[in-house]
Every structure is written in structure tokens, then in C-alpha cells.
Amino acid sequence: MSAVASAGTASQPAVHQISEAVIRIAGNSQDGIQAIGGFLARLAGRSEQEVMTFMTIPSTISGGPSIFQVRIGSGEVLSAGDDADMLLAFYDHSYLAHLGSLKPGGIVLYDSDHLKPENIPAENLTKYRHVGVPISSLTVEAIGGTGRDKGKNVFALGLIAKMFDLNVPKLHRLLTERFAGKDPKIAETALNAFNFGYNHQLATATELFQFTVGQNVGKSQVVMNGNEAIAWGLIAAGVRFGAGYPITPWSDIMELLRRELPKYGGQFQQCEDEIASVSMAIGASWGGGVAVTGSSGPGISLKTEAIGWASMAEMPLIVVNIQRGGPSTGMPTSIEQSDLNISCFGGHGDSPRVVIAPSTVEDCFYSAIEAVNIARKYSTPVMLVSDQGIATRIEAFPEPDLKSLVQDISPDLSPVTEHKPYDLSAPDGVTRHLAPGTRIGNGKYPVVTGLEHDELGHPTGSPKLHVAMVAKRRNKLKKLATELPTPKVYGPSEGQVLLVSWGSTQGPTQEAVKLARANGQAISAVHIKYLNPLPNGLENVFAGFQHVFVVELNDEGLYGIGQLGALLRGRYADPRIRGITKTDGLTWKVKEILDRVSQLTR
Amino acid sequence: MSEMAIPFSPLTRGANTNATPLPPLLEVDRKPLTKKDVAADHPTWCPGCGDFSVLALYFKLIEKRKLHHEKITTVAGIGCSSRFPYFVQAHGAHFIHGRALPFASGVALSRPDLHVCVFGGDGDAFSIGGNHFSHTARKNVKLSYVVMDNQVYGLTKNQTSPTSPVGYKSKTDIWGSNDRPINPIKQAISAGATFVARTSATNPNHVLAMMDQAMDHDGFSFIQCLSECVEFHPGAFDAATPRKGGVFAEISKEHDVTDEYAAYRLADEPWPGQFGVFYKTQRPTKNANEAKIISDYRAKTAGQADWQILQKSFDRLK
Question: Based on the domain organization, do A353 and A469 belong to the same domain?
């Protein structure tokens, strides 16, 4: 929010034009904070603004702190924003914990029923602008009822709508849609709470804001979070079977697929454990589809043996991994990118598999489709690696052209004369399975297996065949690498520093480049989406720079470099490659990245 | 961002797979399979192993039921008996240790046109795969599971198994096992299996009859088949083998197979116990329950292409 505060009085607040705002909402997990964030994100998506949100939830079921940060802007929004322009604090603890994330001069909108104005330190009053509203008691006044806090989120949304001159008819429609289908009284109550908040006299607010009209994106936008985008992408890709076990933050993908797949004739099974779910998915893949399983943290560890079988038997399979802080139970609701190693190498033996990491919510949707296409084309397990940051982040993106995107990948069961799945002389070097139920004219039927095998899948101890089959499984992925595009450099292709990002670090990394370029620094970035196999040609990208810093959210490890950093070092043996890593469980701030760059280049 | 490096492509079916499809065969033109047609690799089992008998009777079952190759789906985990799919000339899968049931469930649920037969041993079923046994039974997934129980780990050369009797001397219990063994029949009944039978590889007609009934059953059908390991646990089942001086006691016709408590009491009889169908009941299968959910939803989406169904969901995300 770049508007300069000008004179205004409580009776006649000044109105400022702004191009973007970062709003942080802090309270407890049962306060419906995500709902406020969701409404704001939806609204922005339906307007011309770009939007990106950042949400943290506590791993406790109810109670405990929760925040939601929305960045709404008229231009390109790459990250959820380093610091907030406005903080909406429901409690003392939300105020104390999050005041530090507010820009100097920023606005604090607080619930004066919980945070008493007399308890606010005087130095805060000069540094930030405070607006106290008895949100809890006014909500009870507005909607009557039990004296419980339900509805105060919608009341607060009304306050924010007033302060930022948001489109009230659109918000009314969103509220009505959200509560449609339930008791009509509920929607009515929500609208009452909203209107009461909107019409509340913001006695101490000396200014109001208006977003400048952004560029029309030209196409209608859809708003969703990263997990939803993966689930919808899988459906679009033709996946009709999945199996999983609940774990945060993967669970909402399985919930969506369980609910939606029957509409398409498919099904999703909740299993007794992680191992059963990956096994069931592999069974369904053998049945002729491309099935999905997924998990987070410890669940991925449990699945690794079966994933190794899928590598060995060369069975298509999608494994979604929504990374969280590890190891073990770790930090279930924190952001971390520490599963790259297990994604690429998890399990015993040489078990090549494909690893793709989407970087944005939109990318989650398209990456899911692409993962399915790779799994089919190369008859291989594909790890689709997202993280807690993208999983719960809501973004608006141009509506996909579903008519051209939705695929049919149902199996072909028509009879054949003969078949050898693990054909060593196949010109493309890729295994093709026939689904059970397919008649084979010569009466020679294949077996799929985890034992080293001959071309029909029967076990062999032949050293020659093991060498040939290991090479076959490796070479098909080397072939895939030749199909992958060399990533484009963000910024000039020559300079002092190249930042390398993967997954959700793309946004803040690119924003760091923008900021550094504006300050005259020769910094560029490159984003790697395909992590195993890596695309070819990266050495030429690195050649244009004095330093190559890999920005990732994991530990620098014993040798001072993060997981992707080590992978790139291993491949290119290039000492210019160094790591910028951290493990605080939060997304990268632009400033943090640039500070680390200056430390490393000093 | 919306560009995909690997777009959708129709798949070839393999270089060696004749592109021209086989002319359709009329059912009447197809000869029933003989043992020769369905036998594949020569079994790796030791001479005298009880598993030979089970394999031979599976071939007989295929012959008796006039199944064609493509209708046979054989799945196994890891163990001596789990080598089974290699010996059957049909689509088969040899999966990881203990997880044959969830794998087979994935096939059974996604391919209702196939009846999946799962074979395995006591370690695979009741030890490493114990959790899956309970849950597949309770969910009543439609498939048949034959556990060839030899009361020992044979493939790894004589360690105590979950069904080894107390006092059994193995390499891991040189003083004799001191853990109470699992009773597979009681386990199956209490987990919710809807067809529970017990047989012995030494009685071929009985094995065939049990497998035939299991395959007819609409639900999770479980057979415990005593199958002697002549190498490490010889004589284990002599008490149930008439030619070794034992008694093969068949369950009386008076037994009510729908009476869960009667079945449980019967299963608790002292070694060597009785043989036949202990318990059989009808309960909606997982397959039927899922099919019902799907058909209810499909009634609402009838006539719409998949992209149109998805479009409706996306319209709500605007």
C-alpha cells in the first residue's frame, strides 16, 4: 500500500487510491479467519485484481492461533507479501504475535472487547495507526443469539469492506452463495452481520482506501487453493481411481476426490493405512488406469517400498506429496521443502521415478495433468511434490479451457496377438502393460513383478538381464529428459547472481529479482519444475552468472547446501552452486533472500 | 505456466504387440482350457510341498468353471506360496510382502468384470499383512483369498510364523516358540469375512470344492488351506491326514453356516479341528456399495461429457 497518509479527520476520512494491499487477519482457529480470507480472495478473483493468500492453521483441532494473509493487487502478485499494511487482530495474543509483521504506519484494526485500548503501549500508538472496534459485542448485537463468537468474522469482513471500499453487491452475492442450501436464516444472519459491520462508524479511522482499477485479465478467473487445483487437475487428466489415508495437509485432496470422482464413474478409497493405499492405487493402475495416492510427511516414508515396486514393475502411478516440516511428525502445519531427496531417491535399490514440483496454484492444476501424461507415456511412478505453502494458498488464475483439456485414459482391452511388456527391443525403450482382461492370441501371458524379470515378467537371476533391465528403467527417463524444456531465465541471461528456485519458492525469488533489478543489481532467477530427471541445458543457463544460489526451504545439511543444491552440485560439479536455505517453517520473504545474497557475495 | 511439456498422447500398445486386433472369437469357437494351457513356469517349490496340490486344483477349478485365459487374474505377495502367479498362464501380479490384499482390492474395485484370486502364505497374511486381512474382510471386497498355511517361514528357511504352534523349534526360537499362534478362522470371522472355510492340501476334492464355493461367493471369501512344508515343518498336519494315521474331520451338515457364534465355537476346537465352510453370510460388498454411490451420481450427470461435469464445478469457483 503505497499511498502516503494525508490529513483526514474522523468525521471526514481521506480516501486514498492504492494499487495493492497486504491484509493479515489473526485470531484463533475456530474464528472463521480462513473464511474471511476466502471471501476476499474470491472477490479479488471476480474483480480485476490479482490475489495470493497465505494461510497457516494450527495442528490442533480447535483452539490455538491461526492467521490468514491476503495480498490483493492490481498488477502481478508473486508472493503473499513480506509485511502487512493492515492487521486485523481478534485477541491480545494475535496483536502481540503479529504486530511485528506490520509495516511502520500500518493500520491495526482490533477487537476492543478483547484487547483493551489502555493496554496498548504508547510507543505502538505512534508507530502504527490503531482502530479499535468492539467486534465481539457488536456482532452479538447485530445478530443476537447466544453470545458466542460465531459471525464475528463476517462482521469484520464488513469493516474491511468499508475501509477498502470493496464491492458490496459482489460480497453480498458471495455470502449468499456460500450459505446457500443451508437454512435460509443462516444466509440472512450472515448478511446482517456483514451490513452491521459495513455501516459501523469507524470512529477512529482517519482514512479509507480504494483500489485502482487493474488491467482486465480478459478471461474469467477461477479461485481455489493448491490442493483443490491438484485434485481438479487429476480429474481433468482422466484419473478415476485413488486411495489414501488422512494426514495434514494432504487430506483435503482425498476428500475432494472422494466426493467428486463418483460423478465421473470413478472412486476414491480411504484405506486402513498408507501402505494399503499406495498398494491399492498400484493395483488399480495395473487394472488399466492411472491411479493416484498421496500423503504428507511420515506417510510418504511408509509408501516408499511400494513405490519401489512401481519403479521395478514399471507401473504408472501418481504419488502426491504435500510436504510439511519433518522429519517424523515434525511440524505438520509448517512449510518446508525437505522431501526432495525422498521424492527422487526414497526406497532401496536403484529405483528411478519422475519428480515434478508445481510452483503456483495454477501450476498445480496443469502439473497434475502433466504428471498423468508422463506416468502413462513412460509407464512410471510420478511424484507430484507440492508443499503446505501452495496447498492452502488461494489464488485466482485464468479459467482453463476444460473442453480441450479433459482427457479419457480408460484402458484398451481389445485382444492382441502377442505381448511382452518388458520388451528390450522396443524402439522407444518404454514398457507397455496390457490390463488384465485383455486376451492375448498366442496364449503367453505376462506377470508384473517386483523381482528382476525377463521380457514377459518372469523372474530371472541372470546378471545380463539385470544389467539390461536396470538400464531400460534408467534410459526411459533419460529419454524423458530430452523432451523437457530448458527452463527460461527470469531476467537477463547474464549477470552476477542467478537464483535457482523450485516449488513455492518461485514467487518470492522472482519478486526478489524484480526488487534487486530496480536497485541496479545484476540478479536473475531460474525455476526448475522437473526435478527428476532434470532437464538438459542447465549448465548453459548457469554459465551466464558468477554465482548460482539455490533458494529452498530445507536444511543446509552436513555439507552446507540444501537438497536441490546438492542434486545440482552432484550433476554439474560446479562450485559456483551454493545454497540459500532456512528451516523456520515460513515462506521466504523477499528481504530475507536479498540479505542472504548480499552476505554470500560480500 | 499453462503450457505442458508432455501433452496427452494416445498410447501405442507395445512394439511387439500386433497392431491389428485379433478377430473376435465367438465363445462357441473357444475350447475350454486344459491344464497344459494354463501351466506356465515350473514351480520352484521343494518336492513334496503341499503347494503343488493347491496349484493343480486351481488349474482344475479353471477347467471346471470353463474360464478363458483373460478372465483369470492371480495376485500374490511374498513367500514360497506367493510365487503362485508365475506358475499360472494368465494375467498375474507378484506384489510386495504382505500387501497382496490391498493391491488385489485395487484391481477388484476398479475392474468389476474380473474375479481376482489371491494366494499367499501365513506370514504374508497374518503377520506383515495382518492389518490388511482384517480390513479387507470388514469391507467385504469381492475377491477370493487362499492362504496356504504351513505354520513356518519357508522361503527364508525356517523361522517362527504367526501360526507356528507353541513349542515349535525354529531358527528364531531354538527353545521352541512361546507365542500363542493366530487362529486364522477365528480371526477371519471376527474381522467380518463373509465366507470362511478351512481345507487341507492333502484332500484334493475338498480343496476344489472349497475354492469353487469361494469363487461363487459374492464377497470376501477366505480359505485357510493347510499345506505342509516338508523341508522345515514335516508332519505338521499328520493329525488331519488319514494316510498318516490322522482324521480329516469334515464339518457336520447340521452346522448352521450363518451362525457366527457357532462358527466361532467350531473354530475353537482343539487341533487338528474340523474342515469345511465355517461361516457364510450375505452382506453388501464394498464393490456394490461403491457402485451404488457411482450410479446415484451418474444418474445426475447422465448425458454430460466429463468436461461438462467439471465445467459445472469450475463455474462455482468463479
Answer: no
Q: A280: distance to nearest CA of chain B, Å?
A: 4
Is B301 in contact with A284 (Cβ distance < 8 A)? Answer: no
Structural domain that includes position A549: 489-601
Give the residue-averaged pLDDT of B181-206: 98
Q: How many residues does chain B have?
A: 318
The answer on B138 and B156 residing in a single domain is yes
Same domain, B88 and B45: yes
Give the distance from residue A128's alpha carbon to the nearest chain B alpha carbon, in angstroms.
36
Say yes or no to pLDDT of A191 above 70. yes
- Asked whether residue B294 carries a pLDDT value surpassing 60, the answer given is yes
Distance CA A350, CA B219 (A): 39
Which residues have C-beta within 8 Å of that of residue B74, sequence separation ≥ 6? B84, B85, B88, B90, B91, B92, B93, B116, B117, B118, B119
Beta strands at B220-226 and B249-250: parallel, antiparallel or unpaired: unpaired
pTM to 2 decimal places = 0.95
* Shared domain check, B152 and B233: yes
Min Cα separation B310/chain A (Å): 8
Of A287, A398, A416, the CB nearest to B107: A287
Q: Residues B238, B94: one domain?
A: yes
**pLDDT tens for residues A518-564?**
999 999 999 999 999 999 999 999 999 999 999 999 999 999 999 99
User: A211 and A285: one domain?
Assistant: no
Q: Mark yes or no for CB contact B22/A416 under 8 Å.
A: yes
Structural domain total, chain B: 2
CA distance A35 to A57: 12
Q: Compute the distance between CA of residue A159 and CA of residue A193 in angstroms, rounded to an integer.
A: 10
Phi (first) and psi of residue A505, to 5 degrees: -75, -5
Mean pLDDT of A51-66: 69
Residue B5 lies in a domain: no
Tens digits of residue pLDDT in A416-440: 999 999 999 998 899 999 999 999 9
- B300 in the same domain as B215: no
Which pLDDT tens digit goes with each residue over B176-187? 999 999 999 999
Kindly give the pairing relationship between strand A394-398 and strand A221-225: antiparallel
How many Cβ atoms are within 10 Å of B27's Cβ, its own excluded?
7
- pLDDT of A456 > 70? The answer is yes
Q: How many residues does chain A have?
A: 602
> Which of B2, B6, B87 to substitute to test the interface with A, most A CBs within 10 Å?
B6
**Domain interval for residue B295:** 285-312
Query: Which residues touch A154 (CB under 8 Å, ≥6 apart)?
Result: A32, A35, A36, A175, A190, A193, A194, A197
Amino acid at A67: I
